[in-house]
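#struct-pred

JT: dropping the chains for the assembly here, can someone run the whole complex?
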Amino acid sequence: MILAVIARDLRLALRRRADLAAVLFFFVIVVSLFPLGVGPEPERLREIAPGVLWVAALLATLLSLPRLFADDFRDGTLEQLALAPLPLGLTVFAKVLAHWLVCGVPLAVLSPLLGLQFGLSGEALVVLSGALFIGTPALSGIGAIGAALTLGVRGGGVLVSLLILPLYTPVLIFGAGAVDAAVNGIGVEAHLSLLAALTLAGVFFAPWPAAAALRIALE
Amino acid sequence: MSHRPFHWYRYASPQAFYPLAGRMIPWFWALAAIFGVAGLSVGFLIAPGDAQQGEGYRIIFLHVPASWMSMFLYLVMAFWAGLGLAFRFRLSSMMASALAPTGAMFAFLSLWTGALWGKPMWGAWWVWDARLTSELILLFLYLGFIALQAAIDDPRRADQAGAILALVGVVNIPIIYFSVKWWNTLHQGSSLNLARSSMATTMLYGMLLCALACWMYAIAISLMRARRIMLEREKDTLWVRKELGF
Amino acid sequence: MIVDFVRITDSAVYHDVHRLYDPQGDSLFSKARMLRSSIMLAVSALECHRGGRRLFAGVGFCLGAGELLYLHGPNGAGKTSLLRMLCGLLPPAAGEICWHGRPIARLGEEYRRELCFLGHHDAIKEELTPFENLSLSARLAGMRLDEARVLEALSRLGLAGREDLPCRALSRGQKRRAALSRLAIDRRPLWLLDEPFTALDAAAVNEVAALIGAHLEDGGLAVLTTHQPVEITAGAIQRLALGDEAESCRR
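RK: done, full complex below.
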């Protein structure tokens, strides 16, 4: 049944490709604005690349979060999901995985192209993509809590940022840190394993508070 | 020892707690004033000037207690909020909402005094020191809690949503703190060391007294706020009408 | 048989339910068992608050196999809230809802497996076709259906030929039909339907009424709110009035 929820969300995302495209386009445009802001010196760009790419990925994820539950909430599907004979936490888990597949994975795939613009070396590009691959599930997981808490609340979109961005700091630190280490030729294992730990924690624990928040929103 | 059982939970209802809080508040104000005067006089009059930092260091008598309180209050807030979520105690949820602005104020105060201290010390208003950064994130967590509760109209739902957020925040605070520390040591090899290794005993006493003053102040002000929240939320009940003389 | 309306303010009946039908707290709800025991859903002294106001209090009823409960009442009387309480989405301010003698709050998933809820919203995804919508909701209900059964259910609700159109191209009434096509495949014993007949034309109303009738004849239970006078011929019918109507009934 978890698979059914994932398949459903993927199919919906496929029918709504414009949303996905908007998120990716946002990612590209934010990253591309930075050189215009700080100047084209390759040295400086290489230095800020990890942070810029990660912050842009964070913001792009944030942009896609409000829709995680809002559509289902509006058309009554969320009620049906909550009444399905499956713990709501597992349903949220499935939705988080689906969100990662349609948001995190494309970001990770796209990131090396943008890294090239910043003059990152081949190895750093691999690490960048890998770190995004490992770290974005945590973004989806933690984000689900924020999306669930602000469901049906006025000004929900802005509120999600306020609630979730502080909680994203560890992911940002280790994610950008890994790329930074790769740029400077230091070992990246420590960063990546901490990032993986955050992801595991985020994906497996975050759905439960998110489910509790959904039940509150459905009352 | 008295054998008469003391029904502490009798005060778990707003109706019983309201007058009790009203009686306690003046005492906490008085204690806050006493500790405050004592702490500040130790800090400004008795404690010796620091050899390296001159007189400017005296801001720590406000800065350090404020940081302590901001962290401590978040824990207390999460505790009350969690209790309210788990057992549906109205009063503890109200206490959580009442504590949040005070905690945010202390976090802000800590950042502000940190900046004031940083300017003469490091020559900059803001330094990305691990503690300051964590404090900043803590302030964001407080603001998120307050904003979430303010955005939800139904008080019961606001309480529950806020409680989930506070609990998630509590779990995350250590992770955030350690990640920020890790980040800080990586990026600033020569980390600015705030630890005052040779702190004079009088300075410590002064700081403790100030911390007690802040504590008493926090209790007094949040009790006052809790009383106001009680009246607001239970405005249709008989006891509030009687209290307000309708 | 028409029982006028049931309103229990003390818990006498509710205790009876406990004693009679759930001596060991058995969790097997086979259809045969259901048919043997007559009372399955027992509600007592239910109270609902919305926005700091008391919507209703002291609501109670018992529903057995093959019985239908109509919820009456003006807008805002709490019909939808009562239905959401019966689903377990909305925790009651006071009172208890028991399924086979056990409180639904404790049954959790076990209870959710037994119930089919159709709310105000259609729970229809605009991007998906009626066929996909129906297959999905069947899977979420834990059923695996072959294509033919899904198509048959859709055509019963008059959606033949529109199975593969995205739902956003359908009219309001057709969307409602797509949502109600769920009833044609649902075999769960308890149906909770919130205004199932809104936006439907006469033919669809008859079809849905027939589905509900068949469900009741099969030994199922249904609770529904409606403002339309609809003939459902099978089963025993109870009526429960909420709000002002309840007051006038009591007098």
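JT: nice. Chain A is about 85% helix and 0% strand. Residues 2-218 of chain A form one domain.
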